[in-house]
Amino acid sequence: MDFEQLNNLKGFMPSHEGLALTKWAEEFSHYGPVLEIGTFGAKSTLYIAAGSSIHNQLVYTIDHHSGSEEHQLGEDYFDPEIYDEKLGRVNTVPLMQANLQQFDESKWIVPIIANANSIAPSWKIELGLLFIDGSHTEISAMNDYDNWNSKLHSKGALVIHDIYEKSEHGGQAPYLIYQKALTEGFQLHERVDTIVCLTHS
Ligand SMILES: C[S@@+](CC[C@H](N)C(=O)[O-])C[C@H]1O[C@@H](n2cnc3c(N)ncnc32)[C@H](O)[C@@H]1O
């Protein structure tokens, strides 16, 4: 993996947290494939694949590709490059494709264009690592945690991004599901800045 090239991609994964993802993906894909909620341009997905490909494991990555609340027209993270005039909405599929085709590790990545809530009820594959980086509304983050944490292998890891203890530093939804996980049998394995890795206690 060319990490310098990867770090230059458009996305929401700084390199120090991305490298933690790579390390955890290598460690926990020993127990099964990885599933990510929130592909965007597949920057985090590629960090994961750099680790999980060592065990020949796939990375399933789910996104409806219409963007989260903060990516919409007029919102804080709106970016005209990911707005499709013909569709009249955000569409991050072309960005994902352009990013994936630059890296050999893409052969381990399986993009799923869907709402994560719709896929969960029929998902049967036991996961080595679950990475939650979808919408940061409280209801969406809770759905991601509630719908998916039971899909993990007993020795697998739950990784959550954008943990901010104080609301003045960032949205609280990821922090709330982190707290919930700690009351439901998970314990902190490691943390790097705003990204946490939990395992079953
Ligand atoms: C913060 S971005 C993900 C950033 C990405 N992991 C990266 O490294 O750049 C969140 C993504 O979650 C997606 N999303 C939000 N709610 C979703 C849902 N219910 N199902 C699938 N994708 C969702 C949005 O479309 C958006 O692309």
Detailed description of the structure:
By secondary structure, this protein is of the alpha/beta class. The protein has a single domain (3-200), classed as Rossmann fold, CATH 3.40.50.150. Helices cover 31% and strands 23% of the residues. The chain has 7 helices and 9 strands; from the N terminus they run ααβαβββαβαβαβαββ. It has helices at residues 3-7, 15-28, 43-52, 93-100, 116-119, 138-148, 173-183; strands spanning 34-37, 59-63, 83-84, 89-90, 109-113, 127-132, 152-160, 186-192, 195-200. The chain has a 7-stranded mixed β-sheet with strand order 5-2-1-6-7-9-8, sandwiched between helices. Helix 2 (15-28) runs parallel beside helix 3. The longest helix is centred in the N-terminal third of the chain and has 14 residues, at 15-28. The N and C termini lie far apart (33 Å). The structure holds S-adenosylmethionine. Residues 11-13, 37-38, 40-41, 43-44, 62-68, 92, 115-117, 133-135, 140 line the site of S-adenosylmethionine. Residues 11-13, 37-38, 40-41, 43-44, 62-68, 92, 115-117, 133-135, 140 line the site of S-adenosylmethionine (SAM).
